[in-house]
Write a structure and sequence with these properties.
The complex is a heterodimer of chains A (327) and B (307).
Chain A (H helix, E strand, L loop, with lengths): L2 E13 L4 E13 L3 E5 L6 H8 L7 E9 L2 E2 L5 H4 L7 E4 L3 H4 L6 H12 L4 H14 L5 H5 L8 H13 L5 E5 L7 H18 L2 E6 L2 H7 L2 E6 L2 E7 H6 L4 H8 L39 H5 L5 E4 L2 E3 L14
Chain B lengths: L1 H28 L13 H10 L6 H13 L14 H36 L4 H15 L2 H15 L13 H31 L2 H8 L4 H38 L5 H11 L2 H29 L7
Classes of the chains: A alpha/beta (327), B mainly alpha (307).
Chain lengths: 327, 307
């Protein structure tokens, strides 16, 4: 399948007062046409920052290295003016909090239409018509009325639909959704995921779904990448990783997710806390929390290696991983 | 929007009434009266004068007489300048004060907004440092000192502008007084605008705008400036009252014929009618500007219109 995004050796560094923090290290992955890639990890694992870097949206003290190739153009380090010819057109992003991600002082139609005016050279009227059409497509009732509303007049779910409509206006090749359902009601979450699935299929858009919710991953994604301490620790198809996790962290994540079939009295969380990115443990970053860690894990960092069948993992442990032994 | 404006206008009426009442009684609490001179007047003359201006009536009755006249637009007589009514005196000084005050207000607001926004966009680069420093200078130097220094440097040493006087409002005569009024107002506005703009540039919705590839200019013009103006606009009402209070001093220092001049001399003379007249006039100007500010605020922030 055709690759739409190829990220090579990407890193993200933040400069603090006296020190530097590396939020993302040695990141490599590809995104194929029409595929949905889930990026999973705890808060602070670097999953959001990696994609903000690709969009050129890092905070002022942030710096990205490496390459993110969209076709033969590298998005990393591209001057903002040049980046603006791609952002919103070829690659779009949806954010976690729909309540604050829309401008409170502008009507919905203004915020939608401007994308088409900028990237498609539509005039205002044509752009507004197209915007209303897209609102209808993302399942907003009375789209004309909603288009003339201000964001505060819409519910959270409705606003996230507006964000989706906004991101898809130019039918981008890549859509990055950063925890798009976290701020929404559970009932709305499911509708939203259906919407993602239908629309990205219709437009042939590749979707990157950043989340910490494995339920979301199971429902929508084709492949997944698990991140820990700024690095990818396991990659593979969703089925492979769910049924046969090979990295203890992936296993731990799966066990800390409630499951409707197993009526466990208690969840089985991963012990300990995610590491501070400023003081990553020596060797494997996960070793303090890992039940399978042995002497090698304490001194040497396991590289992300191909284990066949399109799977990759960063772990030295090769033995069986039994439930209950995690942490 | 029309309903909103009507509500605001109606709510200004009790405010005006409270202010008039407070001024009236506070003024009377001050010791002395308009006819206390260095040489005491003969008791009969004094009694006649007091009777003429109704000062012999109970205070509460005087209050109702005053308010009753005020409602008909009559500010009453001046008790010191016998040949003029308060309205006549205000009418002479008002155009001048308004011109001075509003020119300074408009110039200061524009300068402050532009400087603040520019500072924010260049946050922590040298233009920002320079502007922040200038703003501090404008803020900390009191206007009477600033006026004296400007008179000395530009009026006397360099002789670029006249150091005082009015001459039918010729522009050179206005430069120094307006500058003195503009500096602190522009400074305060710039500080607010800088802070609020920096905040807005860090919001999620500006990040959304960037993710749409809109480009810096469009982001600033359409997405950032309007919300950034909100706190600044709500400051403009009180800002104008600071500025008008400052203009009392400035009119004195530059020997200008505005109503500020009466304000101070009338207070010292206990010219009750004139003090009240000037205060009420200032109050109306400030109420009117606050009303305009509220309307602008409602235009900027769609949420306000419905509450």
């Amino acid at each position: 399948m055709k690759q739409v995004l190829k990220v090579e050796d990407m890193s993200v560094t933040f400069e603090l007062h006296q020190s530097e923090v590396q939020a993302v290290r040695e990141m490599n992955f590809t995104l194929s046409e029409g595929e949905t890639l889930a990026v999973v990890g705890e808060s602070g694992s670097g999953k959001s920052q990696a994609f903000l870097a690709i969009m050129g949206l890092l905070a002022k003290n942030g710096r990205a290295g490496g390459r993110a190739m969209m076709g033969d153009i590298n998005l990393i380090g591209m001057p903002p003016r040049q980046l603006d010819t791609h952002r919103g057109k070829d690659i779009a992003m949806i954010f976690q909090d729909p309540m604050t991600s829309l401008n409170p002082t502008l009507k919905v139609r203004t915020q939608l239409a401007e994308v088409l005016v900028k990237h498609r050279d539509y005039d205002q009227q044509k752009a507004t018509m197209a915007a209303i059409e897209m609102l209808e497509r993302v399942g907003i009732p009375e789209p004309v009325k909603r288009a003339n509303a201000y964001p505060h007049e819409l519910s959270g779910g409705m606003r996230q639909r507006v964000m989706i409509a906004m991101a898809l206006l130019c039918q981008p090749k890549i859509l990055i959704a950063d925890e798009p359902t976290t701020a929404l009601d559970v009932t709305v979450q499911a509708q939203m995921l259906d919407l993602f699935k239908t629309l990205t299929e219709d437009f042939g858009t590749s979707l990157v779904l950043i989340t910490h919710d494995l339920g979301v991953v199971a429902g929508v994604a084709d492949r997944m990448m698990v991140m820990y301490g700024g690095r990818a620790v396991e990659k593979g198809t969703v089925d492979d990783l769910f049924y046969d996790p090979r990295h203890p962290y992936t296993l731990g994540l799966l066990h800390s997710t409630p499951h409707i079939a197993k009526r466990a009295a208690r969840l089985d969380p991963i012990q300990g806390l995610p590491p501070s990115l400023e003081h990553l443990p020596k060797g494997c970053s996960f070793n303090p929390r890992c039940a399978f860690a042995f002497d090698r894990c304490l001194v040497e960092r396991p590289p992300l290696t191909d284990t066949g069948n399109g799977r990759e993992k960063a772990c030295f442990y090769e033995g069986p991983m039994a439930y209950g032994k995690v942490a | 929007m029309f309903g909103y404006v009507t509500r605001r206008v109606l709510s200004a009426i009790p405010i005006a009434l409270i202010a008039v009442t407070a001024c009236f009684f506070i003024l009377r609490l001050a010791p002395g009266g308009p006819f206390d001179g260095e040489r005491a007047l003969p008791p009969v003359t004094l009694a006649n004068l007091r009777a003429h201006y109704n000062l012999d009536l109970p205070l509460i009755q005087q209050y109702f007489i005053y308010v009753g006249r005020l409602l008909q637009g009559d500010f009453g007589p001046s008790m010191v300048y016998n040949d003029f009514t308060v309205a006549e005196m205000l009418w002479i000084g008002l155009p001048f004060t308004l011109m001075l005050g509003f020119s300074a207000f408009i110039i200061g607001t524009i300068v402050g907004l532009v400087a603040g926004a520019f500072s924010a966009v260049n946050q922590n680069k040298w233009p920002d440092y320079v502007l922040v420093m200038l703003v501090m200078v404008g803020l900390v130097i009191p206007n009477f000192l600033m006026a004296a220094v400007l008179q000395l440097v530009f009026g006397v040493y360099l002789d670029w502008f006249p150091a005082g006087g009015w001459q039918a409002g010729s522009i050179p005569h206005l430069v120094l007084p307006i500058t003195v009024l503009v500096l602190p107002h522009a400074g305060r506005t710039a500080r607010l605008m800088r802070g609020s703009m920096i905040e807005v540039l860090g919001t999620n919705y500006v990040r959304t705008a960037r993710s749409k590839g809109l480009g810096q200019r469009l982001i600033l013009a359409r997405h950032a400036i309007k919300p950034a103006l909100l706190p600044v606009v709500s400051y403009l009402g009180p800002g104008l009252s600071y500025l008008l209070t400052g203009s009392l001093v400035v009119e004195q220092v530059f020997a200008l014929p505005g109503i500020g001049k009466y304000f101070i001399s009338a207070a010292l003379n206990r010219d009750y009618g004139l003090v009240l007249g000037t205060t009420i006039l200032y109050m109306f100007i400030i109420l009117a500007v606050n009303l305009i500010v509220d309307v602008i605020y409602a235009w900027l922030d769609p949420k306000v219109r419905y509450h």
